[in-house]
Design brief:
77% of the residues lie in helices and 0% in strands. The protein is mostly helical and 160 residues long. It has 3 domains: 49 residues, Arc Repressor Mutant, subunit A (Orthogonal Bundle), CATH 1.10.10; 42 residues; 59 residues.
């Protein structure tokens, strides 16, 4: 019976991995929610490790790349999302530090700018608020807003 449960936990983990990459902690959590006992989960994860199917570092890189394409976010938000997936801090640090925050911020700003229809001063404020809410630091936001709004931003800075 125990062997059947181990097999089932492994089978379920393999089905999860067939859909998309998962981190170790995420797999363990999903297997636990499915009702597998801790021993079966440990054996399944150990087998996946033997088969080189669990790699938190590659999973973190994949997640950050996917988030950057879908919804570019700053270091703080990216770090929080990776933490939610149960990844260790050292791997999160590597993944987050590997991202070009300036490029991500610019991408998010340009995408948002296409949907903003407001006077230049309100557009700037809305863009800054949007980027702050996305988790970008002030220095990156300031440079990005200056870049994407061009001279409009320079004129607004001088009038303030």
């Amino acid at each position: 019976m125990d062997e059947g449960k181990k097999s089932s936990a492994l089978d379920h983990a393999l089905r999860l991995l067939a859909g998309r990459a998962h981190g170790r902690a995420e797999l363990e959590s999903k297997l636990k929610k499915k009702g597998f006992d801790p021993e079966s989960i440990a054996k399944a994860i150990a087998r996946l490790d033997e088969l080189s199917l669990t790699d938190d570092r590659a999973f973190a890189q994949s997640c950050t790349a996917s988030m950057a394409r879908r919804k570019p976010e700053g270091r703080l938000k990216t770090r929080a999302r990776l933490k939610q997936k149960g990844l260790p801090d050292n791997i999160i640090d590597e993944a987050v530090n590997g991202c070009d925050q300036t490029e991500l911020c610019r991408s998010a700003a340009e995408k948002k700018l296409r949907t903003l229809s407001a006077p230049p001063d309100q557009k700037k404020k809305k863009l800054i608020t949007f980027l702050k809410n996305r988790g970008f630091d002030w220095e990156t936001i300031r440079e990005t807003v200056k870049l994407v709004l061009g001279e409009e931003s320079d004129r607004s800075d001088q009038s303030n």
